[in-house]
Amino acid sequence: MEWSEGMLERFYPDYKYKAVQDIAAGFFKERGIRYAVLDIDNTLVPYTVPEPTQAALEFLERLRGEGVQFCFVSNNRAERVQLFNQTIGAWYCARAKKPLRVGIGKALAHFGAKPEETVLIGDQIFTDVWGGRRAGLMTVLVEPIEEKETLFFRFKRRLEKIVLNRYESTKEAANHV
């Protein structure tokens, strides 16, 4: 299947990192980012880990230290998001329906945030990146911490690989770390 470049650009992240911990200190401030919309599963912790890891907590603490307010917007069930968020106490939207703007819009409304001062960080192109771009947010794609082995996710990751290969061959990939 031949996809045109314009068709694929909607799926290109603004930045790509191996993990959230690789995002440099000062990254958000330098770009005027005051708010972060965060995915949980395979972005902050493996999807099999119900509570925040030390690495996730350190990243969230770093956001706070940089003056970035954050929330969780997840397509997962409320019970899963509540359990993860129990010790953190951030605002969240479960069953967010990404890439639709519903959950992301609720997050922006909660903060009273403008899209241009907000980043969405996630591990999936067709939910996180596309949803963030549709809402006008800066997007950061991280590599999934752990691969899901379902047929659906294997198929989806294969399609994502096509998009990423195209992305990495473009000028936008200059932001690829």
TrEMBL record:
MF GO annotations: phosphatidylglycerophosphatase activity
GO cellular component terms, semicolon-separated: cytoplasm
Domain of life from the UniProt record: Bacteria
InterPro entries tied to this protein: HAD-like_sf, HAD_sf, PGPP1/Gep4
Family matches, as PANTHER family: 4-NITROPHENYLPHOSPHATASE-RELATED, PHOSPHATIDYLGLYCEROPHOSPHATASE GEP4, MITOCHONDRIAL
NCBIfam families given in the database record: YqeG_hyp_ppase
Protein name: YqeG family HAD IIIA-type phosphatase
Organism field: Candidatus Avimonoglobus intestinipullorum
